[in-house]
Structures are given as structure tokens and as C-alpha cells.
């Protein structure tokens, strides 16, 4: 089917300028009325471009919505439009209206991504040919099914579109689809993707699970997002009524958009993501390196790296905007005279820095054992500045914790090594007494910056 389309495009240009098949509408929004379709650009009608005050020297963002139950724009559309104009006041923000096809039965709407992609491709190709408007200035942003629309459009244009951002591209019907009918790295010079709701088996996941761009970021593991769990959902329904229920079902899916909006609005607080082989390795703090493009900015200011296909990037976020957190790898060697292994132990860490502090960060270690170094990830919601003091407390187990009845377990700790992801600084913290003893259920143990040449971590 696709080769057919290519042939038609290639053989006669007349056919290409047949706009009769276009059903999608292209609305150039304005900063003053980000929520209204006040001016439509009609492919083939040159006057509509000037009537809508299209700025030929500026860049253009094309926002493409996804499947909608309600047949109307969702509330994120004006928010994204507004944020784009706030960051790039002279840009052209165009919203693609394919609502009539996107509010059908899901499989039907999913199939229509092909036609809508063709519409978008014809539209930008026409802008380029008619006005010499370079596709170098075009950035498509597609959410859910809209991400695949953007991908299909990008695969059909005469010249390559500069950038496509896929915001939690839809999974059902696309997870196992060929690259030509979904978003893929070939669809633009740079393709960046946020995966925020990939819970469940691959054929059930709302968001596509596999990497489909040059940079694929999985915030909070990409499975679901903080603030979107059932308890919080019920609380919000209690407060906001049932009309928000629909919103909550999509909470994690839509978080991809709000993370992108965050990157537009909080320029001074760029959110970092880190390349990692697995979510599990990331949660151990093993992937906070920025060497060789291993870290990148999430969202608008993503660096254009062409990492090896299929690499995933991870980060943690807050549950609300601004979403940025500060990541740390903590490494501790537990000394003891006797060999012991303890499973599922709870600790609390407190970080005190030059700017702020973050106390009692709960951390659960699946296993700790004698004379082994343990590594784990900690994150703070505030920027504490340079870390000065680390405190660790080992929480009391439950009454049923039989293993602890024969005496309180205890480990000696000499040093705590900390690597900060955001600053890439590695520091070593020492016990004031050379050795400190961490007792289960006991008080917090304090570590301060080591003196002299021990203060900076040179290994690893
Ligand atoms: C068009 O955008 C450029 C920046 O790209 C800006 O300098 C110019 O003022 C804009 N023109 C209008 C009419 O807004
Ligand atoms: C752990 O290492 C320390 C120091 O190297 C040593 O004194 C101790 O005996 C070791 N513990 C065990 C159980 O082997
Ligand atoms: C502790 O275990 C290690 C490795 O399993 C062993 O080499 C060592 O001898 C043990 N130490 C004691 C004191 O049992």
C-alpha cells in the first residue's frame, strides 16, 4: 500500500498537488488565543498563509493529537501551544485537527494514521515548494496515535523534517508493526521519544514499549508515573468529581506531554536522563554517567545524538511540575566480623548540602551482606547544592522479623561514596571516628567529607 503511494508521488507532481483527499485541518494558533482555532491554513490556498500571519523566517511546531473518546481537543492542547509560544514567541504553532477520524473505534482511528500522515506530509511539502519554507524549520510533536501520524508524515515528505518528538506513542497495533507504518528513527533528522505508560504485556501496553527514535527516554522506568496511582486517583475523583476519571486513566500517558511542557517552561531547570541497559541497573545507581553522550536533556533541549538504536534512557521525576529531581549513586561497603546476609532492609538517608537539605529519604535494599559493596540510587526533590553531610539510619524490622531476635545486627561503615548525576561530581564521606557502626533500629550514623586526597572519588 505504501509503495503505491510513493509511486503516485514520484511519477506525477500534479497528483501531489491534488489536495482533495485532505480531511485534516491545520490551525495556526496564536499566543493570545492558544485554545481556539481562529485561523486555518488551507493547503493549496496561498492567501490563507498570509491571512493567518504565518512567519516565514521562524520555526514551525506542528502539534498532532491522538485518539479521543470525546471527539474534542483535550485540555493539554492549549497548554502545549501556550508553552511553545512562551519559549519561542515568534514561532508558528499549528494544531492538526483530525478529530473526526480520531474519535472512532480505536482500530479504525489507528488505521487512519496513514491518511492523516499523508495529509501532514502534503501540507509541509506544499509549504516548502510554494514558499521555499525549509523543512529544517519544522518540528512535529505527536501524542499517542499522533506520534505515528508524525512518523508516517516524516517518511513521506520530499525532504527530511528536522525533528519529530513522539509523546508516548501508542502501543496497540504498533508494537509489532513495521517501521514504515509507525514512528521510527528514519522519519526525521532527529527523533526523540518519551515513554510514560508502558505497563502490561507488549500487546496490551497503552504506550509503545520498544525504542522507536534516536533518543528514547523512559521516565520512572516508563511503566507508570508518580501521582498516577489508584489511591491518588480516587482522591482526585473525590475532589474533582467523576469528570476527571477519564483524565486519570490517561494520567501516565499524558505525563509525556507535561514533561515536554516542563522542558519548555523551566529552561533553567533542565531535566536529565541517563542511558542504561535496564531499569534495574538504573535503580542501583549504576548509570549516572555523562561520558560519551550517555546522558541527555529531556524534552525541548535534547541534544541531537544518534545513539545506537534501541538504547533506552532513564530518570526519576517528581509527581508534579516542575518534575526535575537530583539523582545520586550511593556506594557503601558493609564490614562485619561474621558472615550475614539480610534481605529487604529499610534505611533512611539524609543529605545536607550548601543550599538545602533532604531528610529521611526512604530506601529499601533487597539484600545486604558482609564485606560487600552495595550501590543504590537516591534522589532529592530539592537542589541541595554541594553535599556536605550524609546521615544513614537502619530501620527497625517488624516484630515478626525472627532473624533479629538473636541479637541486633550491626555493620561497620568506613566510607560512603556518592556520585551526583546532575553535576557529575564524585565525593567520598568518612566516619569521624574512622569507623561507624550502623545498628538495626539504632540511631542515625553521620558521615562528613573526607579530608585531603580522600575527599574525591577517583575510582569507578
Ligand atoms: C518573525 O520572526 C522573526 C524571528 O524569527 C522576528 O524577528 C520577526 O519579528 C517576526 N515577524 C513578525 C511579523 O512577527
Ligand atoms: C570482613 O573484612 C574485614 C576487614 O578486611 C575482616 O576483618 C573480617 O574478618 C571480614 N569478615 C568476614 C566475615 O570474613
Ligand atoms: C565469610 O564468607 C566468605 C566467602 O563466603 C569466606 O571466604 C570467609 O572465610 C567467611 N568468613 C567467616 C569468618 O566465616
UniProtKB/TrEMBL annotation:
Its EC number is 3.1.1.34. Transmembrane segments: none annotated. It is found in: Cell membrane; Secreted, Extracellular space, Extracellular matrix. Keywords: Calcium, Cell membrane, Chylomicron, Disulfide bond, Extracellular matrix, Glycoprotein, Heparin-binding, Hydrolase, Lipid degradation, Lipid metabolism, Membrane, Metal-binding, Nitration, Secreted, Signal, VLDL. Pfam families: Lipase (PF00151), PLAT (PF01477). PANTHER family: LIPASE, LIPOPROTEIN LIPASE. This is Lipoprotein lipase. The lineage of its organism: Eukaryota, Metazoa, Chordata, Craniata, Vertebrata.
Amino acid at each position: 500500500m505504501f509503495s503505491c503511494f510513493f509511486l503516485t508521488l514520484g511519477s506525477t507532481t500534479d497528483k501531489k498537488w491534488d489536495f482533495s483527499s485532505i480531511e485534516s485541518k491545520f490551525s495556526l494558533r496564536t499566543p493570545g488565543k492558544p485554545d481556539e482555532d481562529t485561523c486555518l491554513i488551507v493547503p493549496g490556498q496561498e492567501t490563507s498563509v498570509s491571512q493567518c500571519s504565518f512567519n516565514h523566517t521562524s520555526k514551525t511546531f506542528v502539534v498532532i493529537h491522538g485518539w479521543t473518546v470525546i471527539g474534542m481537543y483535550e485540555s493539554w492542547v492549549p497548554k502545549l501551544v501556550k508553552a511553545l509560544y512562551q519559549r519561542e514567541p515568534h514561532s508558528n504553532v499549528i494544531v492538526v485537527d483530525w478529530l473526526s477520524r480520531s474519535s472512532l473505534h480505536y482500530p479504525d482511528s489507528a488505521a487512519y494514521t496513514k491518511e492523516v500522515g499523508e495529509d501532514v506530509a502534503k501540507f509541509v511539502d506544499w509549504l516548502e515548494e510554494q514558499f521555499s519554507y525549509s523543512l529544517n524549520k519544522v518540528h512535529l510533536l505527536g501524542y499517542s496515535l499522533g506520534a505515528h501520524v508524525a512518523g508516517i508524515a516524516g517518511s513521506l515528505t520530499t525532504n527530511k523534517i528536522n525533528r519529530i518528538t513522539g509523546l508516548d506513542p501508542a502501543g496497540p497495533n504498533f508494537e509489532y508493526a513495521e517501521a514504515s507504518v509507525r514512528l521510527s528513527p528514519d522519519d526525521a533528522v532527529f527523533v526523540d521519544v518519551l515513554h510514560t505508560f508502558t505497563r502490561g504485556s507488549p500487546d496490551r501496553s497503552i504506550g509503545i514499549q520498544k525504542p522507536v527514535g534516536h533518543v528514547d527516554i523512559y521516565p520512572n522506568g516508563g511503566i507508570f508515573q508518580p501521582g498516577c496511582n489508584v489511591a491518588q486517583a480516587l482522591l482526585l475523583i473525590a475532589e474533582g468529581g467523576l469528570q476527571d476519571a477519564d483524565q486519570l486513566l490517561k494520567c501516565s500517558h499524558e505525563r509525556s506531554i507535561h514533561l515536554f511542557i516542563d522542558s519548555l517552561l523551566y529552561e533553567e531547570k533542565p531535566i536529565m536522563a541517563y542511558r542504561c541497559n535496564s531499569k534495574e541497573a538504573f535503580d542501583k545507581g549504576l548509570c549516572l554517567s555523562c561520558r560519551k553522550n550517555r546522558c541527555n536533556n529531556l524534552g525541548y533541549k535534547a541534544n541531537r545524538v544518534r545513539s545506537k538504536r534501541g538504547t533506552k534512557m532513564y530518570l526519576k521525576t517528581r509527581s508534579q511540575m516542575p518534575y526535575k529531581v537530583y539523582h545520586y549513586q550511593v556506594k557503601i561497603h558493609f564490614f562485619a566480623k561474621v558472615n550475614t546476609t539480610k534481605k529487604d532492609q529499610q534505611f533512611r538517608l539524609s543529605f545536607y548540602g550548601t543550599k538545602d537539605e533532604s531528610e529521611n529519604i526512604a530506601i529499601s535494599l533487597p539484600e545486604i551482606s558482609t564485606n560487600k559493596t552495595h550501590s543504590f540510587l537516591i534522589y532529592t526533590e530539592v537542589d541541595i547544592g554541594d553535599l556536605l553531610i550524609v546521615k544513614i539510619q537502619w530501620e527497625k524490622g517488624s516484630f515478626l522479623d525472627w532473624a533479629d531476635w538473636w541479637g541486633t545486627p550491626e555493620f561497620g561503615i568506613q566510607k560512603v561514596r556518592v556520585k551526583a548525576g546532575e553535576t557529575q561530581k564524585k565525593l567520598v564521606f568518612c566516619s569521624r571516628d574512622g569507623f561507624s557502626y550502623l545498628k538495626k533500629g539504632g540511631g542515625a550514623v553521620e558521615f562528613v567529607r573526607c579530608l585531603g586526597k580522600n575527599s574525591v572519588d577517583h575510582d569507578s
